[in-house]
Design brief:
The complex is a heterodimer. By secondary structure, chain A is an alpha/beta fold. Chain A contains 15 helices and eleven strands. Chain B has three domains: about 5-100, no CATH class; about 135-245 and about 450-575, NAD(P)-binding Rossmann-like Domain (Rossmann fold), CATH 3.40.50; about 260-445, Sandwich (Jelly Rolls), CATH 2.60.120. The chains are: A alpha/beta, B alpha/beta. Chains A and B meet through α3, α4, α8, β8 and α9 of A and α2, α7, α8, α9 and α17 of B.
Amino acid sequence: MALRFPTQLVTRGAVHHNHDHAKTTTTTAATGSSLSWRRTLIPDPLVSSTALPRKCHVQWTVKCSASGTSQAMNLAPGTPVRPTSILVVGATGTLGRQIVRRALDEGYDVRCLVRPRPAPADFLRDWGATVVNADLSKLETIPATLVGIHTVIDCATGRPEEPIKTVDWEGKVALIQCAKAMGIQKYIFYSIHNCDKHPEVPLMEIKYCTEKFLQDSGLNHIIIRLCGFMQGLIGQYAVPILEEKSVWGTDAPTRIAYMDTQDIARLTFIGLRNENINGKLLTFAGPRAWTTQEVITLCERLAGQDANVTTVPVYILRLTRQLTRFFEWTNDVADRLAFSEVLTSDTVFSVPMAETYNLLGVDSKDIVTLEMYLQDYFTNILKKLKDLKAQSKQTDIYF
Amino acid sequence: MSAATATSFSNSLNSTPNWRLSPTPNWQPPRRSFLVPQAAGKGGKKPKNRKPISPLSTETESTPATQQQQQVSLSLEDVNPVGLGRKSRQIFDEVWRKFSGLGQISRTTRADDQDTLDALLIREGPMCEFAIPGAQNTTVLVVGATSRIGRLVVRKLMLRGYTVKALVRKADQEVLDMLPRSVEIVIGDVGEPSTLKAAVEGCNKIIYCATARSTITGDLFRVDHQGVCNVTKAFQDYNNKLAQLRAGKSSKSKLLLAKFRSADSLTGWEVRQGTYFQDVVAFKYDAGMDAKFEYTETGEAVFSGYVFTRGGYVELTKKISLPLGYTLDRYEGLVLSVGGNGRSYVLILEAGPSADTAQSIMYFARINTKVGFCRVRVPFSSLRPVKPDDPPLDPFLVHTLTIRFEPRRQVCLFQVLASTCSFVWKKINVLSFKLTLEYIKALPTGQETDFVLVSCTGLGVEPSRREQVLKAKRAGEDSLRRSGLGYTIVRPGPLKEEPGGQRALIFDQGNRISQGISCADVADICVKALHDSTARNKSFDVCYEYVAEQGKELYELVAHLPDKANNYLTPALSVLEKNT
């Protein structure tokens, strides 16, 4: 459920409304009715779902409303929900953990919705957050986690290897409906930049549909669209370069404005407290947009060694996707490679942030740039390596 | 080419064997890399062609010469088809993972990568914006960890990588749920000194945010006054124990300058007298003065006498002789244990090259005593030069210590009374003095605060009990100030349950604040104060910035907005007075 974000992303002008790429029908088994998240079919399910929840949810919504549908906060006598209580969905992810940490540091009481797993997320508890076990794909586990919550921050995304619809669409719809029914005061949703322009990428389309669904739900909400995480670059480029492994990149001219997740978390909480931002759609982008090649060059310069780059031309990625789409058993793979469609476009991707900074009252100087971030990483890691080498030299004497 | 190569070859399908022909001329053997031709990136070939290069195919590539070596190093495991299959499968998976990663919008990092990354990015790593350099080796005891501020303090400390001990009265499930799991929970009660010994064990710093649950005087006394006193005592005992283990040579031990335990200890002390005025009037009305320093039968060193002369004074002085290797510049002040009968005295230090006393510069500080014994702390920073132009005191150069009694100010006070009542009787009372000395020690310097106390300003307490609450809090503060620990006393305005870091804060001394403050901000100040040298030995009020209505602004206090980018505490506190 980790929101591990793109290291590559969409470009603005790239509008490929290839609706023939879209699968013809998708019905959700959970509801039985045609809850299609296809873009073309959107208005229908969305309108009906807010006005009148689907069959399966009807019973369940009524149950929730018994404890107070009427937005009233006094669910139980004498226990108003504290405005500092928040629920973070997807707390173990790259962004989620930064959100949790920021929230704790600012004095919120944080509850984390975490999937039950053999190795539980200990670090969240060590920081002082409460962890509740629930699964967005198991709808019956959701309502209990929302009791006593004021704000829901949703930074969950299904893992690439699992079927995309169960968590990202069905789970989210259920979560939003439940939040609505239980009188959650604010819902923060993280989406992907330009998701409205690429319906051929399943994840982006789902995000776009969820945005629409949330907007129509009548919940007090903020939608934040993100571009790319700097944290993702470490694992993708920085570590392989230091370990002299080969680095895989594309020759796509797509530029992405990477942003530090710590900054995203900070801006989120500023926005969360600002009543003027309710119901708005914000886009957070980093200070500068980078291509893959530029990032690799920067890493090479900072690491002081050449990378072993394996460049895969974008058209090959695209071809592979086309090929895999022919067979049913490789359809899953095709979905995963869907992003390559976006990569073939070659426009500069970045959003002018001045207005957003202004709205939030943030100084652009405080936003970390990619150079600073990677510089920080490499100085620290090189220092650590040096220490390790010094240690191993000492032990060499005894051998 | 014997055993060593054989074993290395058995791993060699994972690590690139050096006998393999390299397609690139500047080939260096990578330490851990899968079998992908190095030039792959440059050719721009279809990845499918070069993806699954199985170990077998590389073997066929190798020249006969290397074939030879290879035969030497072949083990049974290397030709095992199952093992080979597994390895080639791993390699293929890796390549496919990377390849398909390029076409994905979100990515999964493998679990093993994740762990190493986590360590750097999340936990202790320098990449974490919360990490504080000193935090790793610091253990902090949070007293009152379940209080409104305490809970947040514990969280903030955990986020910053401190080791945290939490003192709670009961460890029931509710309490355990409230605290992060890796916090060490100590059960104890600040009202019971015996239970505190275990709590302070191993701690470097203490944050005290316990408050009485009610405003009943007994509760107030137990927690806010006696509680602070008990914790400081326990902590000092622990520090002293550590100091003793190092035979008084620890950085925490005080330096004994004089201890008046026997008649012998009085040697070297000299009683002198003098006057400030040398005019005729003074001479004419000279009623005389006298003083003596003696060791009484009851075992006390007493400096007593009278001064009737106008502008006269008597003083007790000694050249300080420090043990070899000690200098006063490693100390931050003096502490005197005296019974002063409520008089005020002047402590004078002479500093300069000890060989040439003519060059000495005099520094003075007024000290007040109480009825009965008390410990008076005189920080070197509070000593002022007698001539205002002289440079501030350099403790390194101090060579003589003087305690002077001068009746000047006290006379003014009592002459009014004296004119109405019996004149002579009063005058004797005022102009005579008796100072019992126990010891004089130098306080070791410290850069940081040892003990952060969250007190209160009294705002927000119900008015009928405010007096009692404040009395207990002030008594607690006083006992901390006297304890000899480096302290920071935070007096927040009425606490609000809201997230911190939103509004500008005002730091002030002197009961002028009117606003509330969020618990999270108070917790943040406590945590920041731990490693801030400007916070040491300071007491201050803090609250939100007062936003005056239009046209009603009275004065502007400098406000500081807490943020990650600026350390707001240092500039805010550096303008405030120490040792208030």
